[in-house]
Amino acid sequence: MGGLGAAVLFLLNEVPEQYTFYAAVLVLSCSIASALVTPPHAGSGWAVAYQVITTIGLNIGWAENHFKPGQSGVRVPLADKPAAKQAVAAAGIPVLNSKGRAETPAR
């Protein structure tokens, strides 16, 4: 995450001073839009636009949206997380990691 933060800082430093207000408004607007707009379905043409908006809005790391196009989030208490993962896997439903890829079952 440190490298991404440095890249964002570098890009913002490259914006001419008279346009920094507009760059900040763009980032803030994208952040607000990604918080208020429901993620589109994975096959939708808007999915890529939504991902671009969330990236510009700096919704990364801990600020990342829990709902993503084509994925759902099942909220369970932290103590029940292992049992929930096991129940979902036993039902034949792949458990996705933070990158959206199926996790390999722990042995």
Notes on the protein architecture:
The structure is a single chain. The two termini are 29 Å apart. This protein is 47% helix and 0% strand. Helix 2 crosses helix 3 (46-56). The longest helix has 17 residues, at 20-36. It is elongated. The protein is mostly helical and 107 residues long. The chain is built from 4 helices and no strands.
Q: What labels would you give this structure?
A:
0% strand; elongated; mainly alpha; 107 residues; 4 helices
Helix content: 40-55%
Element order, helices and strands? HHHH
The biggest sheet amounts to: none
Uncertain residue segments: none
Figure out the total of helices: 4
**What class would the helix/strand composition place it in?**
mainly alpha
Strand percentage: under 5%
Cα-atom radius of gyration: 18 Å
Report how far the terminal alpha carbons are from each other: 29 Å
Mass-distribution shape: elongated
What value does the average pLDDT take? 78
- For the secondary structure, the number of strands is 0
Per-chain topology:
Layout: H1 2-13, H2 20-36, H3 46-56, H4 81-90
Can you describe this structure in just a few lines?
The protein is mostly helical. It has helices at 2-13, 20-36, 46-56, 81-90.
